[in-house]
């Protein structure tokens, strides 16, 4: 169970990235964020952002309609 | 270490505004420093009263009407995608310190555009030499 959930369904680039960054800023190290998107571009965009912030993607689930990322703040 | 990026914007089309909005806000999220240098027609994008409809006085007929309406339609669609307060998003990126918007002094004089017509979070006007100095360690991209 994640500490926080961000539902970004319907939001298109760059909104999933901007909203995720906003959540990460509020989080403490160790906390997890579950991000839900349906923007296909997010599959590569989210790892690009997390690579920059230095946080970790614990898990990625893609069921064809929605992509769920489990992100941990470092 | 990512290089900073300097963008030159010389066109007032909605597409260029959109590119600046998206690249600027995303760069801010990724903490990449970005400078935007607005020159010639690009200066119009910095005006508080910038109208997203592009007027093409020389053309007439359906084609130019549709071109003009494009800006308004795109703007509405961007709001549906989640980008509601577009200038607010840019202002936030500026306040975070990752984005700077520079107007070109010479073309402001050329086109009669005054600093007072622009948003207050736009930097003071600069010239070509200062722009090149700012961009010394950056990639320069013409939008």
State the CATH class of chain B.
Alpha Beta
Question: What do we call the CATH topology of chain A?
Answer: Translation Initiation Factor IF3
Mean pLDDT rating of chain A = 96
The helix count of chain A comes to 2
Task: Provide a brief overview of the structure.
The complex is a heterodimer of chains A (74) and B (143). Chain A is α+β, with helices and mostly antiparallel strands. Chain A contains two helices and four strands, in the order E-H-E-H-E-E.
What does this structure look like?
Chain A is 32% helix and 31% strand. Chain A contains 2 helices and 4 strands. Chain A has a 4-stranded mixed sheet with strand order 1-2-4-3, covered by helices on one side. In chain A, a hairpin with a 4-residue loop joins strand 3 (56-62) and strand 4 (67-72). Chain B is of the alpha/beta class. Chain B has one domain (4-106, 118-142): DsrEFH-like (Hypothetical Protein Ychn, Chain: A, 3-Layer(aba) Sandwich), CATH 3.40.1260. Chain B contains 5 helices and 4 strands; from the N terminus they run βαβααβααβ. Residues 57-65 of chain B have low confidence and may be disordered. The chains are: A alpha+beta (74), B alpha/beta (143). The A-B interface holds A 8, 10-15, 17-21, 48-49, 52-53 and B 2, 22, 25-26, 29-32, 81-83, 89.
């Amino acid at each position: 169970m994640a500490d926080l959930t961000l539902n970004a369904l319907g939001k298109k680039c760059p909104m999933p990235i901007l909203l995720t960054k906003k959540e990460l800023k509020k989080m403490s190290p160790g906390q997890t964020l579950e991000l839900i998107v349906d923007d296909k571009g997010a599959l590569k965009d989210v790892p690009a952002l997390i690579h920059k912030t230095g946080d970790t993607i614990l898990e990625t689930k893609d069921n064809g309609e929605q992509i769920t990322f489990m992100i941990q703040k470092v | 270490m990512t290089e900073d990026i300097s963008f030159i914007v010389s066109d007032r089309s909605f597409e260029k505004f959109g590119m600046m909005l998206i690249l600027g806000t995303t760069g801010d999220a990724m903490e990449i420093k970005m400078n935007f240098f607005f020159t010639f027609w690009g200066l119009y994008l910095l005006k508080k009263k910038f109208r997203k409809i592009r007027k093409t006085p020389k053309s007439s007929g359906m084609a130019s009407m549709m071109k003009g309406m494009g800006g308004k339609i795109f703007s509405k669609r961007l709001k549906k995608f989640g980008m509601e307060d577009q200038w607010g998003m840019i202002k936030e990126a500026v306040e975070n310190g990752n984005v700077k918007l520079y107007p070109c002094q010479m073309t402001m004089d050329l086109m009669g555009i005054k600093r007072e017509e622009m948003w207050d979070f736009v930097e003071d006007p600069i010239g070509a030499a200062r722009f090149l100095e700012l961009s010394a360690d950056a990639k320069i991209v013409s939008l």
